[in-house]
User: Which sequence fits this backbone?
């Protein structure tokens, strides 16, 4: 296992640095490294490490959502209003609708399998989008129109919405009957998750008085986050532990200074990122991926058209000009982090469609992460107004 861990950290960091020099998202280098050293290629990773990869990916997801919650500006979200609220779910629903139409025809999945595929692919990537929106907040581009605030908030909550749908879809695929309780599970899980996060934030706010260093506070937050995931597992999807974790971070950022805590989580992500993406790459059966890549790419491309249409619907009756709306559309296309965190779960659960879903998740990352990142970086100066011009 220790050789595998060394390859994960050292190889992942070097691959990420190389791709950063090529002006591409570092996660792509880590993903490709995982494919090369995984069991379907060079087979350099120990089986014991691959056996716990699902738990390691889940820990990485906790770090991702906490970072997003700590960075979320609730006041900015309220100022933007309706478009930001719609971005939390409407583009994802449109993309899932597109997959429900396309996947049965092209990939020959049934509707339940197509819904599961949609719940994996429909989330936007915090790893690609969040740093770029924070950069826009710092530089002032689009700030006057609330564009980075809107996308940052919408992308963060979009992930929670899609992850909740994923939880329901996996329950249905596992054989749970569709009932009235199934239909109310999502809103109940969301409400309980928000309440659980608020309660934990209130408790931590008081406990933090006895733990003054940011490192100690991060350890406490991680411990509470893992307890929330335990409750999620215990209640079998009736409680959204992921939403609770993000709510916890949002409320703490609102109530107390969290700059030092945010810095600590950013440092944790330096180690978690290569673990997440290298292990996802290692799960890919490259023979299967090569055989089914073209039809999967067609589904991904068609679904993105539905997604961008959903973003455009969110912009209806806003003062944004066409260029600003186009920026929002392309900024909402990158896939990476959530797909890496959950793309291999259906395969690990033994679903017949698991390999197809994992292949789609990886191809979505390889295609949309670099193209989306390049599109954001190359258009924001031309399509958005700088702070002074907005004022």
Assistant:
């Amino acid at each position: 296992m220790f050789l595998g861990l060394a390859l994960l950290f050292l190889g992942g960091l070097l691959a990420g640095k190389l791709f950063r020099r090529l002006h591409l998202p570092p996660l792509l280098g880590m993903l490709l490294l995982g494919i090369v050293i995984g069991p379907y290629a060079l087979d350099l990773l120990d089986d014991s490490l691959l056996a716990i990869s699902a738990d390691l990916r889940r820990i990485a997801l906790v770090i991702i959502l906490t970072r997003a919650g700590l960075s979320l500006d609730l006041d900015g979200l309220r100022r933007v209003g309706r478009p930001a609220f719609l971005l939390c779910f409407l583009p994802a629903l449109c993309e899932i609708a597109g997959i429900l139409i396309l996947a049965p025809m092209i990939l020959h999945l049934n509707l339940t399998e197509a819904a599961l595929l949609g719940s994996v692919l429909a989330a936007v990537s915090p790893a690609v989008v969040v740093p770029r929106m924070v950069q826009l907040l710092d530089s002032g581009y689009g700030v006057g129109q609330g564009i980075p605030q809107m996308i940052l908030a919408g992308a963060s909550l979009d992930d929670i919405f899609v992850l909740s749908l994923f939880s329901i879809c996996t329950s249905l695929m596992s054989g749970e009957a569709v009932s009235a309780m199934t239909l109310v599970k999502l809103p109940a899980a969301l409400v309980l998750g928000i309440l659980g996060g608020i309660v934990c934030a209130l408790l931590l706010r008081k406990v933090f008085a006895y733990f003054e260093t940011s490192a100690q506070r991060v350890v406490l937050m991680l411990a509470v986050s893992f307890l929330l995931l335990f409750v999620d597992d215990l209640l079998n999807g009736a409680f959204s532990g992921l939403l609770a974790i993000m709510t916890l971070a949002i409320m703490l950022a609102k109530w107390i200074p969290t700059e030092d805590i945010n810095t600590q989580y950013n440092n944790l992500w330096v180690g978690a990122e290569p673990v997440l993406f290298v292990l996802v790459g290692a799960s890919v059966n490259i023979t299967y991926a090569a055989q089914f890549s073209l039809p999967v790419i067609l589904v991904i491309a068609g679904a993105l058209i539905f997604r961008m249409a959903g973003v455009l619907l969110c912009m209806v009756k806003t003062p944004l000009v066409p260029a600003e709306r186009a920026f929002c559309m392309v900024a909402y296309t990158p896939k990476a982090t959530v797909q890496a965190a959950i793309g291999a779960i259906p395969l690990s659960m033994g679903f017949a469609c698991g390999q197809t879903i994992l292949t789609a998740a990886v191809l979505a990352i390889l295609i949309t992460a670099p193209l989306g990142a390049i599109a954001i970086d190359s258009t924001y100066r031309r399509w958005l107004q700088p702070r002074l011009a907005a004022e």
